[in-house]
Amino acid sequence: MLITDAALVDGRVRDVRVEGERISAVERGLTPDSDERVIPADGRLLFPGAIDVHVHFREPGFPHKETWETGSRSAAAGGVTTVVDQPNTDPATTTGAGFDAKATLAEASLVDYGINGGVTPDWEPDVLFDRPIFALGEVFLADSTGEMGIDAELFAEAVDRARDAGATVTVHAENADLFDEAAIESLEDDSDADSPPSSPTGRSAPADAWSAYRTAEAEIDAIERAVAVANDADAPVHVAHTSTPEGVDAAVDAGATCEVTPHHLFLSREDLPRLGTFGRMNPPLRSEDRRAALFERVADGTVDVIATDHAPHTVEEKEQPLLEAPSGVPGVETMLPLLLETVRQGRLEPERVRDLVAATPAKLFDLPQKGKVEPGRDADLVLVDPDRPRETQAGGLHSKAGWTPFEGLWGVFPELTMVRGTVVYTRDPETGAETFGPAVGENVRPEE
């Protein structure tokens, strides 16, 4: 096919030819062949497909929260063409059998994918590293959904094994010893004080206690410890969902890479009266000052990657009292639209967004065929109209969660998403009619 008059992130307007799964030409004045499908871009932005290196698609084990089909549809509708799934499913992706079960389910994906191997006391490193895992992680240094937290000794062993296998370690860095138990003791003693909200916009005053409980110091300390272990072992480490500017600085100063999530970038503790228990996540939302400082580090190039930590739970699950509600929010469909809205507002440059969600993830995680609109690369392409933003509404999204913490925020959503030359999503900007393509997703770490 031929996409004509497309605006690229660097401001050039070019025609882009796709042959098979790859981009074959990016030039001016390309003439359509007789059998080519022509897609007139008419000056709209043609963006490389986003690579979300941190999702939880919940299968196997929790298909009522999300499936590979629903999660990948949500990804495609948000311009994400590659996802990396984390290991805290049931069974966990810590054994050969766990990996194989997930790999079979992932064949339902509309987008390309990687599958991370996890670490628990009973993990099977030899078998896992014989499988086509994407990376080792999310390695949990404190319990989160799935209760896969490990101790320092096992973490050091995992780093050594990953180094020998040539795999990056992705770490969930929180030190549970520095959690503030006093922040939630009153909730444990007084159930009446913790009445759940009736909807994602309901009110739950104690929700802020979760941010007070899982302290910023717990994250900063764990990042410093984890990166020190990795540096001693001469092993690459990537810090997941860094929620504080101090955590970003600690990672970068020590030579590690890090990611920031959209919820830590666009939401803060000031949003908790609106979100209630729907705003519980790990690590938690931080102060508005820290959120603003985090955005500055994204804008100035300090942060390497933005990834969603897409962690869907149902409305019914999130409506429980704070100490019973699960941690996590959906976000794979809203990451790129929210970032493109910051471009429209003049807060980020389009090249910076390209680097954060496509080019840099491709470089850091050895995906040379992805991340840019260039000849020879995979035809993972997203067409958007920067002049047609729309309001984020849960009813217009596709995750099985059925809600979003970003309700009411504006975003620039895709009109077309392509995975290796196959159109997997379209939306008519006039009527809102949507179509989804076939499940063409493949593992980006193919077996040799």
UniProtKB/TrEMBL annotation:
Pfam families, alphabetized: Amidohydro_1
Co-factor requirement: Zn(2+)
GO terms assigned for molecular function: allantoinase activity; dihydroorotase activity; zinc ion binding
Residues at the active site: 309
List of residues binding Zn(2+) 1: 54, 56, 138, 309
Keywords: Hydrolase, Metal-binding, Pyrimidine biosynthesis, Zinc
Pathway(s) it belongs to: Pyrimidine metabolism; UMP biosynthesis via de novo pathway; (S)-dihydroorotate from bicarbonate: step 3/3
Residues annotated for substrate binding in this entry: 56-58, 88, 313
Entry note: cofactor: Binds 2 Zn(2+) ions per subunit.
Positions annotated to bind Zn(2+) 2: 138, 172, 241
Cellular compartments per GO CC: cytoplasm
Catalytic reaction(s) noted: (S)-dihydroorotate + H2O = N-carbamoyl-L-aspartate + H(+)
Positions of the UniProt region annotated as Disordered: 187-209, 429-448
E.C. no: 3.5.2.3
Location of the Amidohydrolase-related domain: 46-424
GO biological process assignments: 'de novo' UMP biosynthetic process; purine nucleobase catabolic process
Superkingdom in the source lineage: Archaea
HAMAP family: PyrC_classI_A
Function in brief: Catalyzes the reversible cyclization of carbamoyl aspartate to dihydroorotate.
Family (UniProt): Belongs to the metallo-dependent hydrolases superfamily. DHOase family. Class I DHOase subfamily.
Name of the protein this chain belongs to: Dihydroorotase
